[in-house]
Structures are given as structure tokens and as C-alpha cells.
Design brief:
By secondary structure, the chain is mainly alpha-helical. The protein has helices at about 10-35, 45-50, 70-75, 85-90, 95-105; strands at about 50-55, 60-65. Strand 1 and strand 2 form a beta hairpin. Helix 1 packs antiparallel against helix 5. It is elongated, with a radius of gyration of 19 Å. The model has no long low-confidence stretch (mean pLDDT about 95). This is HK97 gp10 family phage protein.
Length: about 110
């Protein structure tokens, strides 16, 4: 009696990647939602520039391309720090992790 087996590894990994990409987009948007209210507003340019980008290796980049963002986040010699990015993420990391876990269920 011969036993045959078939591997579904490629199909399963494709489903995992697709689901992970969707989950990263949702978590990224959620993270931006936590960060934006903490951004100090002068012109609104910094707040409007906060975005999330899912990476190819299963990570998310949350940030901005505004050149003065690090000066606001970390402060300068003449200006105190007004953190928004780190607190927005770190204070909500459990919520973000839970969202990701829920989205990955049901493979």
C-alpha cells in the first residue's frame, strides 16, 4: 500500500503573507491615529505628514518626512522636547499587538 502526500506549504505561506500585509496596513493606520492627536500643532504640517508604510519583512514604519520632526520629538538646546511619536506608539503597543493578532487569526 503506497502512501502519497502533498505539500500545501506554498499556498499556506502565500495566505500568511497576504493576511500579514493586510494586518500591517490596518495596524499602521491605527498607530497613525494614536500618534496624530499628540503632535503639537503650529501650522498643522507636521500632523498632516504622519504616515505608515508596511515593509517587506513584516514591519511597519510610522513617521514623517518633515525635516523638523526630530527637533519637536527630542527637543533642542533652546526648545524642550514635545514627544508625540514614541508615546503614541509605546502607550498603545498592547492595543496594536491585539489588533494584529486578531487579524492574523483564522488562517
Amino acid at each position: 500500500m503506497a502512501i502519497k502526500s502533498k505539500s500545501y506549504r506554498k499556498q499556506i505561506m502565500a495566505r500568511v503573507r497576504t493576511k500579514r500585509e493586510k494586518a500591517l496596513v490596518v495596524v499602521g493606520k491605527q498607530a497613525v491615529g494614536f500618534v496624530k492627536p499628540l503632535v503639537p500643532v503650529d501650522t498643522g504640517n507636521l500632523r498632516a505628514s504622519i504616515i505608515s508604510e508596511p515593509g517587506e519583512t513584516g514591519h511597519i514604519t510610522i513617521g514623517t518626512n518633515v525635516h523638523y520632526a526630530p527637533h519637536v520629538e527630542f527637543g533642542t538646546v533652546k526648545m524642550g522636547a514635545q514627544p508625540f511619536l514614541r508615546p503614541g506608539i509605546l502607550n498603545n503597543k498592547q492595543i496594536l499587538a491585539t489588533t494584529f493578532a486578531k487579524m492574523m487569526k483564522g488562517l
